[in-house]
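Pipeline run #58 for the internal structure catalog. This entry was flagged by the ingest filter as a single-chain record with no existing model, so it goes straight to prediction. Upstream metadata was stripped on purpose; only the residue string is passed forward. Reviewer on rotation: M.T. Logging verbosity set to normal.
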Amino acid sequence: VHFDKKEDIKKIFFVGEEEYMQLEDYVCIAPKVVTKTDNSHRQPTKETPMLELNTADSSDLQQLHGIGPVFSKRIVKYRNLLGGYCSKEQLMEVYGLEQELYDKLKHHIVVDTSKVSKLNINTADVDELKRHPYLDYYQAKAVVEYRQKIGAFKTINDLRHIALIDNNTFEKIKPYYTI
């Protein structure tokens, strides 16, 4: 409940006129200050820290305005599924995180891509490959079958020879795999 003035105390169902008269001298409500500023491009301050997305834990993420316990857990869980974030735009893939919140966050986060863990496509099995959110079971199976038929991948670009992996998927998975 928010009170803008002393008289708002009367709105509480159990405070009648007589009780209000007894309380009035003890109630002090600071005036509401409204400022109109555009903070969308402001630099990080003590109130809005700059965080590295691949090393921040749940409590670090909760320091960002708009991120509570639920979103912080989702961000960390998705980071673990990915193997790390390659770009801050990947936050938009976190369930429930909308453009408006992302626009507020993007000025307060950085991504260190050296923290991304990579999976070896020459040794990973279907289960390991399909755990990544960008590959489904059939794509993971196609990778393993290609490797069994043709031999070890020589470069990451060899993934382009797999019919089930289109260019968009390839560009998304490329930072997460090694040979």
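catalog note: The chain has a mean pLDDT of 82.
catalog note: Helices lie at 17-23, 58-61, 69-82, 99-105, 126-130, 137-150, 167-173.
status: ready for reviewer M.T.
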